[in-house]
Protein: DEAD/DEAH box helicase
Organism: Pseudoalteromonas qingdaonensis
Amino acid sequence: MTLPIYAIEQAFLAALEHHNVIVHAPTGSGKSTCLPLWANSQGRVLVVQPRRIAATSLADYLAGQKQQKPGQDIGFAIRFEAQLSEQTQVVFATPGVALRLFFENRLSDYDVVMLDEFHERRWDTDLLLALLKQHKSHRLIVTSATLNDERLAGYLSAKTLHSQGRLFPIDCEYLADSSVSMPSRFDLAPRVREACAYALEHSSKDILVFLPGRAEINSCLSACRDLPAEGTALHGASPVSEQRCAMQEGTQRRIIFATNVAETSLTVPGIECVIDSGLERRTHLRKGKTVLGLDAIARDSQLQRKGRCGRTAPGLYIALFGEHAPLLAQTPVEIEREALDELVLASACAGIAIDNLELLTPPAPSSLARAKQTLSKLDAIDAQGLATELGRRIYPLPVDAELGYLIEKMPSSTLRQAMIDLAAVIATPAQLYSLPNQDTLTELAKALGEHLKHSDIALCIAALRGQCNEYLHIEETALTEAQTYSNYLRSAYQLPELERCASFDYQALIQAIARVRPDCIFVRRDNRRGGFGNGELEIRPAKNSLLGEDQEAALVLATFALAGKGKKHADTLATLCAPLTLKQVLEFAPTTARLSDYYWHPDEVNTGEGLAGEIRATLSYSYAQVTLRSMDTRVDDEQLLPALTELILDGSLFPGVAQQVSDALAYHNLYLLYQQQEQNLATAGEHLRARLVELGIQSQEDLMLIEAEDLYYQGLEPWQSKEFMERFPLQLVLPGMTLDIEYVFKAKRVIAHYHSGERKDPPKRWELPSWSGLQIRYKKASKVVDIR
């Protein structure tokens, strides 16, 4: 059977000889299998595939076409596994592997680089394309099923070719309450079962069901067990045997429950019907962190999914949402919806600061700045934005930069092994184990140590090391993946393999992590949510966490954030915790010390000469706005002046001084207004602080040397102040009434404000000072009366 892509073979070969080439072709047209072989005429080819399953499956298929095994003419390179040699002509690799090869030798072993399924717009393929564009040493092929080709062609100065797909008629059914119903997660498994039963009755071959993740796949598999078809799961963590089973037609009808992995790159054979949940798990940016949300797909994804059932025969497309549901037109690109730490570090490791790299979609400046700040704190990049020696060691590790930093900073071999095992569990997407009942946990703690009772960190390491098999239900697929991560990391640090792991001191590990990453320390907050905070983020222990409700603080190494409705809202659940004491928080967290509640503590024996005693206060240590410890303490010399100023202002020391200073300053201000002079006077507190400095007060013992009069404010000469105060009092006490007086000299007005008293009538003119030439008003609440 001739594939549609063959129609452009000669045009492709002619264009590739002199230009970079963009090939716009629908999924299933044959571009992923034919273009790499054609491009081999220009030299060795590296094909960058977004997904591991696609990379290995395509290599298997093309090698099989040559009656070979992968590793001869056709090979692949994915994380933890590679089958290729120096003679391999076409290599399929994931973007992460391709980036690491670029760091090593700028991909000098390859002449042509093909970025397949570029419309997925992953950050790593965007970065790789920008690096190759700047390097200008390879012929580039970019393939896309749905993309703005004109913009990409201008970016690459490339020639664009279009290939038609082969699409048979597709009948569409929409199983929804209304034509505008959006995709929904509610009652998903029973709705999928209903759709599968309908599909089995109205189609004759295999059925492909698109679901957002593994949990939904497992629940739908269970719901459909009684249907007359073989159920198969297909996702990124599927065992190789299951992947191969899904990619081969069998004698029995199949229902293949798949994630987006089956949307592009892979053409699952024998599919006549597609059931589309309309859901996917998509990353979002919330408060500077990448969180995973359950979202409705965009129209471009819907078209991709729909097209999977009309490749070889007429198909049936069943959507579990309305035909006119208001879906997004395009799936947002990753650079716009994820934290950029990995992007910035990858570019830095390539020898190009991210600011000097032209990306197809420029990152948001705020996200870029946040990523650079994070990596600078980790000492992973320098002031020029290039990778430090530490950054270059961290980036190749199959864990994120913050975990790599923790591994690097462990103070001993045994603790590094423990941290590696912990990082391996965190890097594995699937849950390693299911928690047993409380009785089993108690038995486990008695057998292996009490620290296992409330510490996810301790339990994860023990589970990975095979120490809990008789107490926990271990997920074998997740265990295999986590062990692979662990052994890879151990090999990178020349440490013993997992089966020969060294025992470690649990408390030493917790303290080492807390010392290196104090931002991972969280304290319980006094709120109804029962959350923990670190000053920037609030979390709640997830249901599968061992952290007890009575714990005061926790070390949190892994979180799962559920995207909320607003752009900033996210509910963050802690999935990997260890309890901490407040004493440990005080030791390792960046606490804030604060003096408050100053008071004068007189000596029991007072000689009567000057002040005898000392100023004391409450010293509080807090973290994340939570007070950890408070104690009574003598105020030290550094805090003496602010403490002394506060006590004078509230009248605890030198009674009457604060009133004198305030009144004298008020009259001086009023005098300057009267004279129409512009001058900013100090506040009472500023004056007292300045006077104490002038008097040379440096220690509490110096307090015995000063008297109240030393602190008075003398802004006006006595003869000036006496006469002025008599003419313009700030407060008047009349029979049955006290008034506060406000002077507005520019408006030639005086306002007498009611302050207190039982008198109800306004004051009489004869009761008031002369105030010659000034209009007088009386104000009580909202009532204003002119006094004549």
In short: Residues 571 and 784 are 54 Å apart (CA to CA). The chain has five domains: 4-162, 170-336, 401-589, 591-716, 729-787. Residues 591-716 form one domain.
